[in-house]
Each structure stands twice: as C-alpha cells, then as structure tokens.
Design brief:
This protein is an alpha/beta fold. It has a single domain, classed as Maf protein. Helices cover 31% and strands 27% of the residues. Strands 1, 2, 3, 4, 5, 6 and 7 form a 7-stranded mixed sheet that branches. Strand 3 and strand 4 form a beta hairpin. The two termini are 18 Å apart.
Length: 190
C-alpha cells in the first residue's frame, strides 16, 4: 500500500502521474520551524514528521511525506493566505533569487526504513512592478502556494529562470527522487 501523507492537491496530482494506486491522508504534524533552524533542515524534518504522523494508521504501507520551504537569505516565504500577504511576498522577491527547498521522505512502515532527500530549486523572479503583481493576483489564485507564485500556471510569467534537477520539486513533490526511492523499495516503475 502506498500512502501520501498530505492534503495538498498539487502533490496528489503529481503522484497521480506515476499511475500507482495510493491513498492521500492528512498528517497531524506541527509545521512550525524550530528556533534557529535552517530552511533546508525544516523542509526535510517536516517531510519525515509528516510520514511518521500516519504510521500508526498504516503500519504496512510505504508512506510519502513532503514539505517545502522557500527562502532568500534570512527571509522565509510560506503560503500567503491573503492577497495582502501575497503582494508583500512578491514585492520582497522581485529581482531576487529564491530557493524553494523540497524535502522528501519515503518511510517503509513495516521495516522502519527511512529514505530522506532534499531537492532545491533556484527561482529568479523578474523585477516585477506593483501593477504586474496586482494583475497576476487578479488572474491566479496563488494564496495557498509557498512564495505566492504557481510556476505550473501563470506564475511562470513572473520568473527570469528556474534551476534545479527536478521540475516537479518546485510544485511540491520531486518525482525523479521519489521514483528512485520507490524502486529501492521494490516498486516496479517503467
């Protein structure tokens, strides 16, 4: 059995690309960063915490946990929740490179084996005007996306470039790394 410990529609859609049967469940995990914790460590710790949060309900499953933290220097950019927060985030990111670090965990609940990886994506935002930011938010609901921009949608127009090993990592579930992990657990993929 394969379990995705996530309520994210984006992650469910990405996992669906692999044509594997899976169940998506909500993990009960505190997603707050620890004091002084680097964003990379936060993303990877939370991906493991999300997987571990559902082990009791699925003791024989392969459980996938994933978490993403966007950061630039000391600033972190989470899900904005409101248009006002999205405007502030996009203004702070304009003309800058932001790292979207996606933590990925595959936990074999039966054996206790944990595979944990981090997949970074560098995203360079154009020097956006306030009018461009406003038009973008008028046309795309990005309030539930880290960094207020959906690269798989209109958000791509906000960017100068993306750099990373796995384009699906930016959306929230690094499928290239996940395929390697699943194969290591004996799951047959093409």
């Amino acid at each position: 059995m394969l379990v995705l410990a996530s309520t994210s529609q984006f992650r469910r859609d990405l996992l669906g690309r692999l044509s594997l049967q899976f169940q998506a469940v909500a993990p009960d995990a505190d997603e707050s960063p620890l004091p002084g914790e680097h964003p990379v460590a936060t993303a990877e710790r939370l991906s493991l915490a999300k997987a571990r949060a559902v082990v009791g309900r699925y003791p024989d499953a392969l459980i996938i946990g994933s978490d993403q933290v966007a950061y630039c220097g000391d600033a972190r950019f989470g899900k904005p929740g409101t248009r006002e927060n999205a405007i502030v985030q996009l203004q702070a990111m304009r003309g800058r490179s932001v790292i979207f670090h996606t933590g990925l965990c595959l936990l074999n609940a039966a054996s206790g084996r944990v595979q944990l990886r981090g997949v970074p994506t560098e995203v360079r935002f154009r020097d956006l005007s306030d009018d461009e930011i406003s038009r973008y938010l008028d046309n795309e609901n990005a309030l539930n996306c880290a960094g207020s921009a959906r690269s798989e949608g209109l958000g791509i127009s906000l960017l100068d470039y993306l750099r990373g090993d796995d384009p699906t990592a930016l959306v929230g579930l690094p499928l290239i790394a996940l395929c390697d992990m699943l194969r290591a657990e004996g799951v047959e993929l093409p």
